[in-house]
Design brief:
Shape: globular
CATH architecture: 6 Propeller
Order of helices and strands: EEEEEEEEEEEEEEEEEEEEEEEEH
Number of domains: 1
Strand content: over 45%
Radius of gyration: 17 Å
Number of helices: 1
Strand order of the largest sheet: 1-24-23-22
Amino acid sequence: MLSEPTPWNSDRLELGEGARWVDGRLVLVDLLAGRLLETTGDAPAPFREVHQLNAPLGAVAAIAGRPGSWLAAVGTGVAVLDGTGDSQLVADLEGDNRARARMNDAVADPHGRFWAGSMAYDATPGAGTLYRLPSDGPPEAAVTGLTITNGPAFDASGTLMYLADTPLGQVDRFTVDPATGALSARAPFLRLSATEGTPDGMTIDSAGHLWVALWGGHAVRRYRPDGTLDREIRLAAAQPTSVCLGGPDLRRLFITTAALGLAPRGPVDGALLAVDVEVAGLPAAPATPRSPQLTS
């Protein structure tokens, strides 16, 4: 039982991100280094490198029916990573952006759609977009005018989505059409002050509560569906970046952190942290693309 946030291993990442619980293991990225990593969730263990890319790697989703293959937010678009270590770009989403941009966070929803957000390297306001990749069609711009896109996070039914715009300190909630992925009823969910930190990666637990990593805030928080704060876990790491519930009973909260830009760096900045909580999470949904480009 881990009652306090504890380093999972001795590895330290420059920009740990994208923690997901997939097929009984934890996957995560060292974003700017383009590394896809995995580790066990029952006992501390070093990271194993799954892929090394020559472009920033924001996050991945397993591809249903293709063990060892991933749909990934990479560089300026989305790529398929296969079990041999090869990668194939299938959609260049940000290559024509007037700002120098890259992909950031990404996730598959419970209906198999892949959602990937972007940002400008210099955080140009409004230069980011959240893209929706349907199971059987081309990419679509779902939310525009963002700055640094983080999340989204979906509830178990895939009909509710939370999306963070990190520098603005805000998280919005959307209704999702389960058949089409169309978004509606956008409404403010969280508005945080600069002293609290800014919202980064997020996940929803089995009770419908939203866990949020607070970049610069030395904390992760759990919010009730009505937006009230339910719990805060303080951290020795200054820059928590993503959260994931995993482990044998899905009650182990894994927290990625970043050492990027910190001087001096503390002993757990850049560490993967773990602490046990009361409410279980939801396994990461796989992407289920039916496009020949993605399934061949």
